[in-house]
Amino acid sequence: MKHYALNIAEISAKVVCAFDVNMIANQVYEHNFGHAPSNKTIERLTAKDIEKYKADCWLLSPPCQPYTQGGNMKDIDDPRAQALIHLINLLPKLEKPPNYLFLENVKNFEESQSREKLVQQLREMNYQVKECLLSPIQFGIPNHRLRYYMMARRCFDSQQIDEESGATTATADEGQIHTKWPFNSEYQFEVPELCQFIENTANENLQYRVPEKDILKRHKFRFDIVRPNDHKTSCITKAYGSHHLQTSGSLVQTQHLDRVEYDWSDPKSLLELGLRFLTPKEISRLHAFPMPEYQLKPNHSSLTKPRSFTPPHCLPHLEFPDPVTLMQRYRLLGNSLNCWVVAELLRCELF
Q1: For 129-170, how does the pLDDT look when each residue is reduced to its tens digit (9 = 90+)?
Q2: Closest-CA residue to 32 (of 339, 258, 345, 341)
Q3: pLDDT at 301 over 70
Q4: Does residue 182 have a cis peptide bond before it, meaning omega lies within 30 degrees of 0?
Q5: Domain co-membership, 273 together with 305
Q6: Do 9 and 36 belong to one domain?
Q7: Is-contact 334 240, C-beta < 8 A?
Q8: Count: domains in the chain
Q9: How many angstroms separate the CA atoms of 215 and 51, rounded?
Q10: CA-CA distance, 279 to 288, in Å (whole number)?
Q11: Span 250-276, mean pLDDT?
Q12: Structural domain of residue 262, as residue ranges?
């Protein structure tokens, strides 16, 4: 998804290599971009391996399990954190470290030892570090997906002094976690209604209908039910579309749209609402992937000020190969980032 974000940001960049051990994700990547990512594990990379790519920027998405309740929050003691720790240890050994680094992870990463170790190494190597906790809602997209983001830019002697304050740029944002977008601004983007992202034709498709048995067995559980005129959906996880309805994402109400109050003690009454899952295409739209139905438009963007959200139109569009099943699509999208959020942070803050 960060490759898509580079395209959406309209940054002149070439991805020299992508790494992923998920075979299905690699299949989708190759289908869309024409070449397969490397499935070599990060822990096996040497300084020589990395330097042969001559990469000026690293875009990182370390496994989130070491920093979540579900993963027991073992942090640096979790084997899944070792890939990031390995890269941190390799950084000072590189003859030409990357000038730019972008990292995303779940909320709680900002309080981790992994983050502390990374920030310490970056500052020792004279990187300017910016950090934030942001959700697509703040960018004008009706989906809540709070994520931690770090942007780091390597500073050189001529860049180290801020002309106004006299402070070194490497310490200008030290310790600050931005929670507003745009940073240090009270401006808020308007969030459109969900109807601009959903397909009415999916309402009658039984493969997206929530099974009655999964609704009836959850007495007094409050599902996140959304209607077409709503302006927010909840975070979609990799369990979306399965029987794990709790906190896996929003369910779309397709019938009795005037009903906004629900009797949670009577699950049977919810069956009248025609609840369905969001389709993979709808989730892809909410994650701001370029989609085939969006027409290609000429490039007129040259400013670095934050933009109001518009559906991305750049190529390639996101398409799933036919062998990728519905559940595999849900899992991949549940693990995905919001492409527009990443694009705007790359465009306005990192580059």
Answers
A1: 999 999 999 999 999 999 999 999 999 865 554 444 334 444
A2: 339
A3: no
A4: yes
A5: no
A6: yes
A7: yes
A8: 2
A9: 53
A10: 14
A11: 95
A12: 200-278
Is the separation of the CB atoms in 254 and 273 below 8 Å?
yes
Residue 257 CB contacts under 8 Å (≥ 6 apart), including other chains: 227, 228
Q: What is the DSSP letter of 236?
A: P
Hey, what are 185's tokens? 């601004």
Q: Is residue 40 situated within a structural domain?
A: yes
Among 75, 42, 89, smallest CA distance to 61 is for: 42
Residues in the chain: 351
**Tokens 């369990």 map to which residue?**
239
Same domain, 242 and 105: no
- pLDDT tens-digit profile of 94-132? 999 999 999 999 999 999 999 999 999 999 999 999 999
Cβ atoms of 271 and 215 within 8 Å: the answer is yes
pLDDT at residue 80, as a whole number: 94
Structure tokens belonging to residue 31: 């289908």
CA angle 185, 191, 194 (to 5 degrees): 160
d(CA 147, CA 10) in angstroms, rounded, equals 22
CATH number where 157 lies = 3.40.50.150
Task: Identify the pLDDT of residue 299.
Answer: 55
What's the whole-model pTM score? 0.93
Q: Is residue 284 part of a domain?
A: no
CA 38 to chain centre: 21
Is-contact 147 106, C-beta < 8 A? Answer: yes
**Do 52 and 134 have their domain in common?**
yes
Catalytic site positions: 64
